[in-house]
Amino acid sequence: MCEQCTAVCQSGSLGANTKVVLLSELHQRAVDEALQSKNGHLDLFLRFLLGLSVKSHQILLQALMKQTRSRSESTEKTAEYIKKKIRTIDSPEKSINLFHCLNELGDRSLVEEIQQYLTSGTIKEAKLSSSQWSAVGFVLLTSENKLDKFDINTFVGENSKAEKLNVLQYLLPVIKVHLRDCGVTDEDCAALTSVLRSNPSQLRELNLINKAIRDSGVKLLSVVLEDPRCKLEKLRLRDCGVTDEGCAALASALRSNPSHLRELHLSLNKLGDSGVTLLSAGLEDPRCKLEILRLRDCGVTDEGCAALASALRSNPSHLRELHLSLNKLGDSGVTLLSAGLEDPRCKLETLWLRDCGVTDEGCAALASALRSNPSHLRHLSLSLNKLGDSDVKLLSDLKDDTHCKLQTLDYCECLFT
């Protein structure tokens, strides 16, 4: 008998001197012990113990089991006890483990109830309890159809911010969170941060698209990103009212915990050159593994481009996509950026420079960079720039370079004939 089993059977009312131990009592004691465990080390043992109660397993174990009467009744009592516990605990992880236990006992009543809500599309109106939200989490976790993105607005009414955060608490272990135009403000970010900090290692993707989040909300989220247990890979903060102040917090988080974030979307925020410069300092860390950076319409000029070019030279091997459209970079900015692209260690594959004030001078710098390091860039967007016939020919001639891997060259609405 394993140490955990011995501990359960010899503790409290089920001491070694107890003459008769009902199977349901043993199960209930095991459930209580598992729920009291802070690190969850009894969770798998509990599921194993309950699995032994299944009739097919009992046939194999009859020689070891002294109690043979009313096993089905004991199993039903255990299932009812577990469902009672699910309704009273507030830990999503422990609730989900108890649903696994019910699954071991063959009781799927709660899960089937939730599956009906999910398939009928009426879950929004259902006003689920915390235990039912845990059931949703279990269904999503064990479903054969993996959930790539979770849009909370399809589960909760648009005007219920408190309920949104409550749902996040119970579904965080199994979802990627998408909160688009959902009314979450910088104040609500404090509650959201609390949810994330309680279990920072589960979430991989967080989408927040709301102008009301602002710098104060981003600062709170950055505290979560700094936690070394945080494994967030994708963070989208498009049009969230972020300025250079919020960028400073994000840059600090990148320096503290640089190795997990792969995508950062900050388009339509007023970061300015100062914000991008602060962010670039975090990108320079060789431990930073950021692959996608989107800064469309962020008020960046040639000064911000200089900082990004410096980051590319310091840590050139990870960034794959850089979006800088609708920024007033001008030829000077693009020339500075091109200096970073010339580094043979640079692996950038996609570069968006739509409507960035580029003319023949910037185009010449890009063409030179592609000739120096032709083997990585696949997609280049230069639409809505002041490029003439000679500029387009300069770039188009690169196709004759056998080393050049450029697949898409976008220069719509330029000045060429």
Could you characterize what this model shows?
With 417 residues, the protein is α/β, with parallel strands linked by helices. It folds into two domains: 3-86, no CATH class; 169-410, Leucine-rich repeat, LRR (right-handed beta-alpha superhelix) (Alpha-Beta Horseshoe), CATH 3.80.10. Helices cover 49% and strands 8% of the residues. Strand 4 (234-236), helix 12 and strand 5 (263-265) form a beta-alpha-beta unit.
Question: What is the topological layout?
Answer:
Elements (H helix, E strand, L loop, with lengths): L2 H8 L12 H14 L6 H9 L3 H7 L9 H18 L3 H14 L3 H12 L9 H13 L7 E2 L9 H11 L5 E4 L5 H13 L6 E5 L4 H13 L7 E3 L7 H13 L6 E3 L6 H12 L8 E3 L7 H13 L6 E3 L6 H12 L8 E3 L7 H13 L6 E3 L7 H8 L11 E3 L7
Parallel strand pairs: 1-2, 2-3, 3-4, 4-5, 5-6, 6-7, 7-8, 8-9, 9-10
Helix pairs in contact: 2-3, 2-5, 3-6, 5-6, 6-8, 7-8, 8-9, 9-10, 10-11, 11-12, 12-13, 13-14, 14-15, 15-16, 16-17
Please tally the helical runs, counting DSSP H or I stretches of 4 or more residues. Answer: 17
The radius of gyration over CA amounts to: 28 Å
Q: Note the overall shape.
A: elongated
Find the structural class using helix and strand composition: alpha/beta
| The CATH superfamily title of the largest domain | Ribonuclease Inhibitor
* DSSP strand content: 5-15%
Helix content: 40-55%
pLDDT < 50 stretches: 1-5, 8-19
Q: What's the CATH class label of the largest domain?
A: Alpha Beta
Q: Count of DSSP E strands? A: 10
Mean pLDDT, to the nearest integer, reads: 81
The separation of the N and C termini measures 84 Å
CATH topology of the largest domain: Leucine-rich repeat, LRR (right-handed beta-alpha superhelix)
The major beta sheet can be summarized as: 10 strands, parallel
Strand-and-helix sequence, N→C?
HHHHHHHHEHEHEHEHEHEHEHEHEHE
Examine the secondary-structure arrangement and name the CATH architecture of the largest domain: Alpha-Beta Horseshoe
Strand adjacency order, main sheet: 1-2-3-4-5-6-7-8-9-10
Structurally, the number of domains stands at 2
